[in-house]
Amino acid sequence: MVEPMTQQTLDRLPRSTTDAMSTSQPYLNLPTNQARLGDLWNASVASPTFRYAVRRTWQAAILIAITVLLTFILINLAPGDMVDVMAGEAGAADAGYLELLRGRYGLDQPLPLRFFHYLVQIGHFDLGFSFRHNLPVRDLILSRLGATASLIGIAITLAVLGAVALGTIAARHVNGAPDRIISVVTLLSYAVPTFWLGLMLVLLFSVKLRWLPSSGSETLFSGYTGWARLRDQAEHLVLPVLTLALFHLALYTRLLRASLLEVLNQDFIRTARAKGLTERRVIAVHALGNSLLPLVTMVGMQIGATIGGVVVIESVFAWPGLGRLAMDAVLQRDTTLLVGIVLFSGCFVAIVNLLVDLFYSWLDPRIVRN
Amino acid sequence: MIISGFWKRFRRNGPAVIGLGVLGLVVAAALLASVLRPGDPWSVVGPAFLWPGEDSRFPLGTDILGRDILSGLLYGARVSLAIGFTATLISSLVGTIIGLTAGYYGRWTDDGLMRMTEAFQTIPAFLLAIIVIVLFQPSMPSIISAIALISWPGVARLVRAETLRLREADFIAACRTFGMSDLRILLTQILPNCLAPLIVATSVSVATAILMEAGLSFLGLGDPTRLSWGTMISIGRDGLRTAWYVSALPGVAILITVMAVNLIGDGLNDALNPRRRERPS
Amino acid sequence: MREPLLAVHDLSIGTADREAQPLVSGVGFDLHRGETLALVGESGSGKSLTALSLLRLLPDPPVSLQGGSIRFEGRELTELGAQEIRDIRGGAISMIFQEPLSALNPVMTIGNQLLETVRAHARLSRKQAAERVLELLDLVRMPDAARRLHDYPHRLSGGMRQRVLIAMAMAGNPRLLIADEPTTALDVTVQADILDTLQRLQSKFGLAILLITHDFGLVADYADKVTVLYAGRQIESGPVSEVLQRPAHPYTRGLLGARPDVLPVKRPDGTRPRLAEIPGTIPAIRDLPPGCPFSSRCVEAIECCTRRAPPLAAVGVGHLSACFLTQAAE
Question: B146 to chain A nearest CA, in Å?
Answer without folding.
Answer: 12
